[in-house]
C-alpha cells in the first residue's frame, strides 16, 4: 500500500482513506475547491467552514503575475492564500489545452511549485482532448510520460508529486499510461482531460476512462478526477475508485446565476423556491436571492455547501455499505447518467474484485441492479452448491415443502439458493414483490445453471402466479414446474 495513503473502508471500488500531506492528513473522498489567485469569490480562509480540508490552485497563474509570484516565493503558497491546510497546485496544463502554448517549461514549473511550498505538485502534462486521432493521442502521451518521468527525478521529499494519466478516449492508451506511471511511484494519480466529457454529458465515456486507468494503477494509490466538481456525479466516480475531486463549478456556475443540487442544476431566475436547507437558503427566499446585489456570492456559497453535503453522504454510504444504491439514485437524474450506470455495470466483474464480500442489506433499485457485483459473485459461485436427491425450488413466501431432500428459495435477481441462507447477505436483499423482466431473467439464468451443474438431482420449481419469461420454457425441460 502507498505509504502516504491508508484505506480504512471500502464499498464497490470506492473507499474512505487517509492521505498524508506535508500540511496534514486529509480524509478522502473529498473535494478541493479551486482557488483563482487573481479572483476569489470566497476567501480561502473561509473554506474550512464549508467542509474543505484541502484546496487546489494554479501555480502557472501565480508565476506569471509579479505581485503573486514575489509573495509566494518570499512567504510561501500557504501565506499567499491564507490557508493552513494542504494545497495542491496545477501546472498550467489547462492553459496549455486552451491556448496551445504557455511560457514555461516542465522543469521551471516543477521547481516553482517546490519553491513556494506546494503540498502536491503537478508536472506540465499534455491534456489530450477526447476523440483526437489515435496518432496524436499516442504522440502527446509519449511527451507527457517523458515529462512526468523527468519531474519524478526532480522531486524527493519536498512535496508530493502527481502523475496525470492521459490517453484521450482510447481505453487501451489510458491503461498503458497508468501501467507506465505505476512503475515510477507517483504519490497521486490524476485522470486528466476529462472536463470536455463532463461538459458534454458523456458520462458513459467517462466511466471507460476511469476504469481503464484504474486497471493499470496499483489499487491502493489515491486517484484524482481532474475538473470533476458537480455533486451529481460524485457517487458514480467514487464507486469506481476516485478519491480526490476539484471544483471550480461552485464559482463558475454562480457567475452564470446557476444553482447546484445533487440532482442537477437550476437557473436561479427560474426558481420560485430554494430546495435546500443550507445557511444561505434558509436565510433567503428565491426572490431575495435573485435581487440581491451579492447574488453571485450567495450562489457560490450555496453551491459549496451542497457540494460538501453530497460528499459527506457518499462517505456515509460507504460506511453503511450502500454506495451502489446511492449511485443508482443519482444516475436516474439524467438520461446520460443512466447510460453511465449501465456502462459501469458492464464492468461488474472488475468492481466485484474490489467489492467487500459482506456488507449491509442489498436494496434492489431497478433493472440495472440485476447486474450488480453481488449478483455476479453469486453466479460465479454456483458450482460450490452440491445438490443430490430431490430438491424443491420455492418462493420465499411459500412455507417449507416436506418430503424433499433439499429446500431452495427462489429470489430474483439471484435465483435459487439454500433456504437456510435467506437471512444471510446478500440473499436478505430487499426486492420488489413482482420481479421485472431483467431481475427475473437473471434469476432464471442462475437457476438453470445451478440445475445443470447438478444433473443427478431431481428439481421441482414452484412458479408464482403471474410470472412470465421466455426462460421458463428452457427451465421446464430440466425441472418440473408447478404452479
TrEMBL record:
Which GO terms of the molecular function aspect are on file? pentosyltransferase activity; zinc ion binding
For this entry, list what GO says about its biological process: tRNA wobble guanine modification
Q: Which residues form the tRNA-guanine(15) transglycosylase-like domain?
A: 13-335
Name the cofactor(s) required for activity, per the record: Zn(2+)
- According to its UniProt record, the EC number is 2.4.2.48
Taxonomically, which superkingdom? Answer: Archaea
The record, for Gene3D superfamilies, names:
Queuine tRNA-ribosyltransferase-like (3.20.20.105)
Which InterPro entries is this protein grouped with? ArchSynthase1/Queuine_TRR (IPR050076), TGT-like_sf (IPR036511), TgtA (IPR004804), tRNA_ribo_trans-like (IPR002616)
The catalytic activity, as recorded, is:
guanosine(15) in tRNA + 7-cyano-7-carbaguanine = 7-cyano-7-carbaguanosine(15) in tRNA + guanine
The UniProt annotation places Zn(2+) binding at: 276, 278, 281
Q: Where does substrate bind?
A: 125, 193
Record's GO cellular component terms: cytoplasm
SUPFAM superfamilies listed in its UniProt record: Pre-PUA domain, tRNA-guanine transglycosylase
Q: How is the cofactor bound?
A: Binds 1 zinc ion per subunit.
Q: Name one Pfam family in it.
A: TGT
Cite the active-site annotation.
Answer: 90
Q: Which key words are in the record?
A: Glycosyltransferase, Metal-binding, Transferase, tRNA processing, Zinc
Give the enzyme class: transferase
The pathway it acts in is: tRNA modification; archaeosine-tRNA biosynthesis
Function field: Exchanges the guanine residue with 7-cyano-7-deazaguanine (preQ0) at position 15 in the dihydrouridine loop (D-loop) of archaeal tRNAs.
**According to its UniProt record, which protein family does this protein belong to?**
Belongs to the archaeosine tRNA-ribosyltransferase family.
This protein is called tRNA-guanine(15) transglycosylase
* Species this chain originates from: Methanococcoides methylutens MM1
Upper lineage ranks?
Archaea, Methanobacteriati, Methanobacteriota, Stenosarchaea group, Methanomicrobia
- Whichever gene encodes this chain, its name is tgtA
